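Support reply, case 0932

Customer input (verbatim):
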Amino acid sequence: MNQIQSLLNDCLIKTKHVEHAAIIKLKDETVWASTLGFNLQPQHALLLSSAFFKNLLHVRREGLYFKEKHYKCVRADECSIYLKNEDRGLIAVKTDSYILVATYSEGMYPSVCVEAVEKLVYLRKPA
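Our regenerated output:
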């Protein structure tokens, strides 16, 4: 396990309110690291990148189809996208260089997932 995977596990998974997490590099829209069992394909990385840079208004209105599930938008701005599908959810936070994405599932508190993901915003350079 590399240092980035350890960071994801220590800061997110150990909260017990984040099911899976990954970091996508914006430069080439590739998955830099992910937690065990979270297999993001290149098209998933591209979809999340496009959601921030090209389709933010569409995500707000229509939600997002991610990994064979439709998610409704709870919040979407230039830095964060929060999506929900029944008892599951997806949180994506954009920095200057990366997108940090995390999921939560039934029995997990969405607010704790959001807080844990947003705490890793130190990856985001100050404006």
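We compared this against your earlier run and they match. Two observations from our side: The domain at 3-123 is CATH 3.30.450.30 (Beta-Lactamase). Residues 80 and 93 are 4 Å apart (CA to CA). Please reopen the case if you see a mismatch on your end.
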